[in-house]
Design brief:
The complex is a heterodimer. By secondary structure, chain A is of the alpha/beta class. Chain A has 9 helices and 22 strands. Chain B is an alpha/beta fold. Chain B has 11 helices and 19 strands. Classes of the chains: A alpha/beta, B alpha/beta.
């Protein structure tokens, strides 16, 4: 076994991928899996900018020369009391491969991610050096919140972690994943999350992104929703310079429900571009999406999301909503919610998108009640976000998300003080 | 109502107010396009040099640009298998018996008069309306309104023509607009002087046997300050055409305080690719309205656009699309807010039936500095059958904070409770569905001139009974 020297992210090859397996002394199935995904990454070239989903974000300045990090960043995990005894697993992915090899092999790297992010999905599956693994056994309801926090010591690296969440039949789990990196250096964060909800499972997964101010966040998330299962995801995008996230929702089990929630607070020159692809492929499925953006300074938010109702499905229900609050003359938004409906037996189908400034009468009213303009604006933005925040029932997640947003929108407490 | 057949509309010149019998044979063009064909079209028409040069320049743009890949499937178009110029004797007008039976049946059911039927089918002319046309024309002339075939206007009003032609849709705008600029023939030219209000809608209908709805028609409307005009083209009844590609360009200039409404109803036969570029520029306090109904064709790609370039300009697009078996209606609207306090409204109603597919595709763009702009986009789609499909692609680019921009869309089927209720009142299922569909499109139909609205409702009913197509 040779330990590979650090490699620039742009200079990966099949040998370097093998080097990762060598370095971590991985089982054969994982070597083969990485090799297959590397083949896919090579066969699926990175976006050129001509693709519909990539017209609003250029990858020209993506820092491809930073080295792929082998030093997995510190991964803090918190498992509520009693969960471990019930068989719940929450650990970093490398440990999971060592300790639960068969279980991980049954779920890791089996599916495609969002089509818009096919290259990056393949790349992460081939070149991951960290990530988290969560497993909830059949019938287990976890009380409390599972927390995973990854804190990168350095920003100037490429890191493509994989988070795998598997909720077995009739289980129930709430999980918060946080990713943090320092400001000041350009890096490439390409984390992906694969969330698999078995029949009648109930999964709540929140991702709080607080990357450094020069970070490129090219992430992806795939959610598969089993029969009668319910999955709610919350995507809170706070940090990074460029965020370009792809979301895939596969509703292939009859009666499944998914809800995608997003909170975006962006300022300076931040650029956030979300692609969602919600596929309703089974009868009686429901898939809703609600993304709210508050845009300051010269920030720009793009959203291109497709709801696809497959031919032959019955009684599907879907709504896609994307709202943008423009808080500076130089902010911009491009909300594009797309419907592709190939069935006629639809229970509910629609979308809405808005962009605009704060209603001046609201500002005026708040000021007549004694608030200075800045506090009034913050209060109104908090009220705008409430549409999503009110749907976060988990105290831990709500508190962390509000804390992360406080820098932009303040808190109710400080205002009361 | 009436509408010209493309074959009829390619008569080049020598046209003077009324009916023009095709006289002696003219050059017969071969299929296909080349710089020589483009130059030859211009030569035959006896055009000034600048137009010949513009056509050739446009042809180079057409050659250089790729086919659009983002909308409907256009692979069925073979540009070398198309006649680009048809003269009087080339029209190859068929006999009534050659007109497909389903089209004749539709005319009967719509109650279209005999002469008009033949005109629509391209086998006869609407001689009867000549008198009506002359009367209207006299009124217009007194007011200083110019209403001519585009080819004729180039000859009779060269300066006005050159000043505006191609200023809204330049020769290199897109591949199909470039093609139109290279080979255009026919269309209408309208100039409404300052402060003049044209009371009656101007209809291509009255300009019988002119080149008003050809394969590559070119229409230019200039509404001078404070004037108003409503132009109507098309008809609800199927327009039979043997040509497989129709690619028109419509340019409209709405000057300060003027108002233009442009109503189109197209119902081309289902062999036609209908790829049209329509754009208006609305200046200060101007109002521009597109009312656009797409019922026929194999593939339609049409997104009437409005550039709101003056303060307080207002733009509206009302769009109805009906896609039956094998049809793809890719339609919508584009509004560009390029001045403060501009407002816009897009309303789209689409219906897909059988294996039909409707796609709403629209853009609302707000440039920086266009404060207090407001835009509302509302798209509703009905999917009538299991194999039908409906898409919504609403693009928005907002680069100004102080705006109110909203988009909403719904897709639904005909409600079973609604059907049940109507059928309990004694309607058949087809009647009930037709009534629901008519109610669905009512907000737009009520904006149509009466005779169009009546025919539209009747046509929907026929479609729902499965009696058509």
């Amino acid at each position: 076994m040779t330990l590979e020297a650090p490699r620039a992210a742009a200079a990966l090859d099949a040998g370097a991928i093998e080097g990762i397996s060598d370095r971590f002394d991985e089982p054969d199935w994982l070597r083969a899996l990485r090799a297959r995904w590397w083949g896919r990454a090579e066969a699926t070239p990175p976006p050129t900018g001509q693709e519909e989903e990539w017209r609003r974000t250029s990858l020209d300045a993506l820092p491809r020369d930073v080295e792929l990090t082998f030093d997995a960043p510190e991964l803090e995990t918190h498992l509520p009391p009693g969960a471990a005894e019930a068989g719940v697993i929450l650990t970093d992915l490398r440990t999971a491969v060592r300790e639960h090899s068969e279980l991980v092999a049954r779920h890791l790297g089996l599916s495609d991610g969002p089509g818009s992010h096919a290259h990056f999905w393949a790349l992460a599956n081939a070149a991951w050096t960290g990530g988290a693994f969560c497993y909830v056994p059949r019938g287990v309801t976890v009380d409390g919140t599972l927390v995973v926090r990854q804190t990168l010591a350095r920003s100037d690296v490429a890191f493509h972690p994989v988070t795998l969440v598997v909720a077995d039949e009739s289980s129930s789990v709430t999980m918060l994943e946080e990713i943090v990196s320092p400001d000041g250096a350009a890096g490439w964060y390409g984390g992906i999350a694969d969330i698999q909800a078995g029949q009648a499972a109930d999964v709540k997964y929140a991702r709080l992104q607080q990357l450094g101010d020069e970070a490129w966040n090219i992430g992806a998330q795939r959610v598969s929703v089993g029969q009668d299962a319910t999955v709610t995801t919350l995507d809170a995008e706070i940090g990074s310079k460029i965020t370009k996230v792809g979301l895939e929702v596969e509703m292939s089990g009859r009666g499944g429900t998914s809800r995608l929630l997003g909170l975006l607070a962006a300022g300076d020159d931040q650029h956030i571009d979300i692609n969602a692809h919600q596929v309703l492929a089974a009868d009686y499925t429901t898939s809703d999406l609600l993304y709210l953006s508050a845009l300051y300074d010269r920030a720009r938010a793009a959203f291109y999301g497709v709801t696809l109702v497959e031919h032959g499905t019955k009684q599907t229900s879907s709504y896609q909503e994307c709202r943008n609050l423009l808080l500076s003359p130089d902010a911009g938004a491009e909300p594009i919610p797309v419907l592709e409906i190939k069935a006629n037996d639809i229970l509910r189908c629609g979308h809405g998108a808005t962009a605009g400034a704060i209603d001046p009468t609201q500002l005026f009213y708040a000021q007549t009640r004694g608030l200075d303009p800045e506090s009034a604006e913050r209060m109104i933005v908090r009220g705008f976000f409430e549409q999503v925040v009110a749907q976060i029932h988990d105290e831990t997640i709500r508190a962390r998300v509000l804390e992360a947003l406080a820098g932009r929108i303040g808190t109710t407490e400080e205002q009361a003080a | 109502m009436a509408l010209p057949n493309p074959a009829l509309t390619q008569i080049p010149d020598s046209y003077k107010y009324g009916w023009n019998d095709p006289e002696q044979p003219r050059t017969t063009f071969k299929k296909g396009i080349s710089a020589e064909v483009v130059a030859e079209i211009s030569r035959i028409k006896g055009e000034p040099e600048w137009m010949t040069k513009l056509r050739l320049k446009a042809y180079r743009h057409f050659e250089a640009r790729p086919m659009p890949k983002w909308g409907a499937d256009l692979d069925g178009i073979d540009f070398q298998d198309i006649y680009y110029y048809v003269t009087g004797t080339d029209k190859a007008v068929q006999s009534w018996d050659d007109v497909p039976e389903y089209i004749r049946r539709t005319y009967d059911k719509l109650g279209i008069p005999e002469a008009e039927k033949k005109y629509l089918a391209g086998v006869g002319g609407q001689y009867d309306s000549e008198v009506v046309y002359h009367n209207i024309r006299e009124d217009l002339e007194k007011q200083g309104v110019i209403f001519l075939g585009t080819d004729e206007a180039l000859k009779t009003h060269p300066e006005l023509f050159r000043e505006h032609f191609g200023t809204v849709i330049p020769a290199n705008d897109n591949k199909l607009a470039a093609l139109n600029t290279a080979v255009w023939s026919g269309g209408s030219f309208i100039y409404v002087p300052k402060g003049v209000h044209v009371e009656l809608p101007l209809q291509a209908y009255f300009r019988i046997n002119t080149e008003n709805m050809g394969q590559f028609e070119r229409t230019l409307i200039i509404a001078d300050e404070g004037s108003s005009v409503h132009y109507v083209e098309g008809c609800t009844a199927p327009t039979y055409s043997t040509a497989s590609l129709h690619s028109a360009v419509v340019e409209i200039i709405v000057k300060k305080g003027a108002r233009v409404r442009y109503t189109t109803i197209q119902n081309w036969s289902p062999n036609v690719y209908n790829l049209v570029t329509k754009r208006a520029v609305a200046h200060e306090d101007a109002v521009m309205e597109w009312v656009d109904g797409n019922l026929g064709s194999k593939v339609t790609m049409k997104y009437p656009s409005i550039y709101l370039v003056g303060e307080r300009a207002h733009g509206e697009v009302l769009s109805i699309a009906f896609a039956g078996d094998g049809q793809h209606q890719d339609a919508g609207g584009k509004i560009i807010h390029a001045a403060p306090n501009t407002t816009s409204l897009i309303t789209s109603k689409s219906i897909s039936r059988g294996t039909g597919r409707t796609s709403y595709r629209g853009l609302v763009k707000v440039y920086p500095g266009c404060q207090k702009s407001k835009s509302t986009v509302r798209c509703d789609a009905l999917i009538l059958d299991e194999e039908a499909r409906s898409d919504t692609y609403p693009y928005m680019e907002i680069d100004e904070e102080d705006v109110t921009i909203g988009h909403e869309a719904t897709v639904s089927k005909v409600g079973s409770e609604q059907l049940f209720y109507l059928m309990s009142r004694g309607l058949t299922e087809a009647e009930a569905s037709a009534m629901i569909v008519n109610g669905f499109i009512e907000p737009i139909v009520k904006e149509l001139p009466m005779e169009y609205a009546v025919e539209m409702n009747r046509l929907i009913q026929l479609q729902m009974e499965g009696a058509v197509g």
